[in-house]
Amino acid sequence: MGSFSRFTCSPCDLTVEVNGSGEIDYGMRSASLTLVCGECCQIATASVRVPKERMYEMALHDLRRLPSCAVCRSKQVQVWKDGDPCPRCHGPLVRDPDFLCLWD
Ligand SMILES: [Zn+2]
Ligand SMILES: [Zn+2]
After folding, report:
1. How far is Cα 9 from Cα 57, in angstroms, rounded to an integer?
2. How far is CA 76 from the centre of its chain?
3. Is the pTM of this model over 0.90?
4. What residue spans define the domains of the chain?
5. Ligand 1 centre from 8 Cα, in Å?
């Protein structure tokens, strides 16, 4: 089962919809990470095929292995997670409690 979450930033009106809860989601052979781009400030969900046990370590320490930005192809991406600030204005990104979409 998967889900979408939506986060909004009221100071700058950035709205992002991420796969999952905004945390790292582990599948059988891949993990779903939410990445934020330092160039264009877009937040996107990326699937990375890695062994589960190395995922956390890789995400935090081996940033070169992260996929590039889906929008501008920049490599300046970082892992974003629920609670991190808006990449554009550094305001609070707040989870929209009315928006939760589940599927099997
Ligand atoms: Zn980008
Ligand atoms: Zn913002």
Report:
1. 29
2. 14
3. no
4. 2-91
5. 18
